[in-house]
Amino acid sequence: MATPDTPEKNRQAYWRENLRIVAWLMAVWFLVSYGCGILFVEQLNKIELGGFKFGFWMAQQGSIYVFVVLIFIYVRLMNRLDEKYSFNEKDEPKTKDETQEQA
Amino acid sequence: MDVKIWTYIIVGLSFASYIGIAIWSKAKSTKEFYIAGGGVSPVANGMATAADWMSAASFISMAGLIAFSGYGGSVFLMGWTGGYVLLALLLAPYLRKYGKFTVPEFIGERFYSKTARVVAVVCLILISVTYVIGQMKGVGVAFSRFLETDYNTGLFVGMGIVFFYAVLGGMKGITYTQIVQYVVLIFAYTVPAIFISLELTGNPIPQLGLGGDVDGEPLLVKLDKVVTDLGFDQYTTSVMGSKLNMFMYTLSLMIGTAGLPHVIIRFFTVPKVSDARLSAGWALVFIAILYTTAPAVAAMARYNLTNTLQPGDAVDANGSLEFDRRPDWFKKWEITGLLKHQDKNADGRIQYYNDANKPFAVSAESDNGWKGNELVHIPFGKSEKDAKNGPDNDFLVLANPEIAGLPGWVIALVVAGGLAAALSTAAGLLLAISSAVSHDLLKGILKPEISEQQELNASRIAMIGAIALAGYFGLNPPDFAAGTVAIAFGLAASSIFPVLMMGIFSKRMNKQGAIAGMIAGLGVTLLYVFQHKGIMFIPGTSFLGTMDENWFFGITPNAFGAIGAIVNFIVALIVSANTEAPPQEARELVERIRVPGD
């Protein structure tokens, strides 16, 4: 918990906004891979793009670039959201108790 | 210098550096060991995760599979990268907030049940052992070529080294070794790709070279032509099975990626929730460097291989390569059995074409006297007459620099890279298996009173057992390295991912639902895989065979994990809705992990 007195409503609002961000990004994720790379690949293959058929390029190159960008957008949006609801984390490493178990 | 000498030098140096760094950083401070990842930036952690994750399947096998399946091979590219989006968005930050150590531990606590934890351990062991089998296949291929022996000798040498490497210590926890392994493997993968791309298309960036021109025509257009001339499907459009199968295959690999215990563990160790998100992003950047290079490697290798074996016109009886003039690399790969020539029409030439394409085969026979495809491979323990059609896909990445005529040190580098990939992942998996046995099963449930030393001993025994088991199955792999690994992903997709996701996103999910879901999902997937690939992959015990007509809606066993995951979700939701709500503590746990901060 960010602070002991974080109101329940605040958490709920944070979670709802979080879900909305995730839903949007997942929609793009689905569109570039399953949409462009598989379902509509024939239609997109009609478009030629510098030696590539576009559908083929999306399946073997483009979708991967979009995935990378998606995660970094997510990182940004979530950091902003954390700040908005002041769920900022302290810059301390984990306590020894917690980490010892990892060994 | 001779390739063999180069290989000994480069493989030897890379191994010396892994062990050296492990000893150096271990000796430096035990404190650093305990706050594993605590002092490591998300970039470094991402790099280490990438090394942990990219295995023999990615390095040795994947490009070969893509080369021989063309567009259909995209399922591996999208599946093994898109899973990181799921991991970053749906699991990593919450599991980091949970803050404990193993995946079964989370499942046990969230579902307030030791049974759930045991079921999770069983799933984890099944997943990891299958995954290690795939690594063993890759290690066997790499060593057999490197030592110029047959595949099984290569496998035994590989087993010995993996054993030595994993048991040597908690080396896996040391991020720096993995960073070096990443550097070795990415260097080894991209350097030959750059050379080949430059040679073929004049563009040093393989990702662009793939779309570049060869003699004034786009490479992919030329490739389509060269392969269709030999009766194969067009490279850029050949579908793997059906579109539904490709959809399910991709989904299975993506969900499986997000459900792999040894990958998830990496996000438990970063200092903050926001670092968990960022680590996933960096991991994908480093993975994407290899994954966007792979399709270029695949297309160029297929092009070079086809042109080497068919230097003349495809419809000319004298167009194929004469056996006596076959290149050196061909002779060396013959020793491994992964590539063999059977002169069916006794014309002293190597005909490599698609004889399953009936009209093409008929006209090739009447016009040229071709009596079938002559490029075959011989599975382990079989004789020449049991040879299978086509080369073994797994040889292609390792042979690629030789086919392109690159210098000896590049060839040696690729062997070192393949071994780095296989070893880093195998060691990580073996540690995941042994920690599940000793930490979750023994210490957590069966015998909580055992000492730390006993726990350690138990984990070593578990590791030896896992290596022996994986080696045994590696002698008779159910599929190519990437295919075997795909089955492991299917098992992860159908068991671990759904319960983790529901454990975070649903407060209502209870222990009955989770346990029933895991058992149903894993059960359905295992049944489907075993009935087509044999019980525990033992040949001859499959009761339906791998015939296409027996496949459920044409979905291959490798792609069935997605169906298993759907079954898992549905069963869990139905069972949970009809049994009592979870206790207050479980709901509070969910509330707690949903927001960052303390």
Structure commentary:
The complex is a heterodimer of chains A (103) and B (598). Chain A has 103 residues and is mainly alpha-helical. Helix content of chain A is 71%, strand content 4%. Chain A is built from four helices and two strands. Chain A has helices at 8-39, 41-45, 54-84, 96-100, and strands at residues 48-49, 52-53. With 598 residues, chain B is an all-alpha fold. Chain B has two domains: 3-305 and 403-594, Sodium/glucose cotransporter, CATH 1.20.1730.10; 306-402, no CATH class. Chain B has 23 helices and seven strands. In chain B, helix 9 (175-201) packs parallel to helix 14 (273-309) and helix 14 (273-309) packs across helix 17. The longest helix of chain B is centred in the last third of the chain and has 39 residues, at 408-446. The chains are: A mainly alpha (103), B mainly alpha (598).
Q: How are the strands of the largest sheet of chain A arranged?
A: 1-2
What multimeric state do the chains show? heterodimer
Using the 3D structure, state the CATH architecture of the largest domain in chain B: Up-down Bundle
Strand content of chain B: under 5%
Number of helices, counting only DSSP H or I runs of 4 residues or more of chain A:
4
* Total count of helical runs of at least 4 residues of chain B: 23
Query: Which protein chains are joined by the largest interface, and how many residues does each one contribute?
Result: A-B, 59 and 66 residues
The termini of chain B sit apart by: 59 Å
Based on secondary structure, the structural category of chain A is: mainly alpha
CATH topology name of the largest domain in chain B: Sodium/glucose cotransporter
Tell me the Rg of chain A in angstroms. Answer: 20 Å
- Strand tally of chain B is 7
> Biggest sheet of chain B: strands, sense, closure?
3 strands, antiparallel
What order do the helices and strands of chain A follow?
Answer: HHEEHH
Overall outline of chain A = elongated
Low-confidence stretches of chain A: 92-103
| Rg from Cα of chain B | 24 Å
Helix content of chain A: over 70%
Pairing-aware structural class of the strands and helices of chain B? mainly alpha
